[in-house]
Design brief:
Layout: H1 2-5, H2 9-21, H3 33-50, H4 55-75, E1 79-80, H5 84-92, E2 97-98, H6 100-109, H7 115-127, H8 134-143
Parallel strand pairs: 1-2
Helix pairs in contact: 3-4, 4-5
């Protein structure tokens, strides 16, 4: 997952700064990579039967979802997933899971993200191609007194 995030220099620098600044965020390098591979083999089989996406999609997008599920299970952490397959994995392994909208809501609630900036950040995520359900986005904005998108 980190490899995917570090592709863009700006993102890489932001993540490194967050890791330095917030002690409660840990890198997860030591996890069962074999379990990730097993999940990806299952996923390949599912997609082949359904005439689904390419191997490149499975190797990048689905790998991240599998890594999140495996790491959350190993470390007893909450899985942060937006993708439907990632949520399906979290449910299958009885993991607590939430998405990006939940994180933004928590950051606003803890006053680590200014409410006035919430709408702009959501728009940036959507513009970058991050899937966020528009009804949930607008519900969050409404709760914080902001205009819908």
């Amino acid at each position: 997952m980190r490899t995917e995030l570090y592709r863009r220099r700006v993102t890489k620098h932001r993540i490194r700064a967050l890791l330095r600044e917030y002690a409660f965020i840990d890198k997860c390098d030591d996890y069962n990579q074999s379990a990730v591979e097993v999940l990806l083999i299952e996923r390949r089989s599912e997609r082949t039967k359904a005439g689904g996406q390419t191997e490149a999609v499975i190797q990048h997008k689905d790998r991240g979802e599998a890594e999140v599920a495996v790491q959350a299970a190993e470390f007893g952490a909450t899985a942060v997933v937006d993708d439907p397959w990632g949520r399906e994995l979290a449910k299958r392994y009885r993991l607590e899971y939430h998405g990006t909208i939940w994180i933004l809501e928590r950051l606003c609630g803890l006053e680590l993200l200014a409410r006035a900036n919430l709408r702009r950040h959501l728009q940036q995520l959507i513009k970058r191609g991050i899937f966020l359900p528009l009804d949930a986005v607008n519900e969050l904005l409404h709760r914080f007194g902001e205009k819908p998108i």
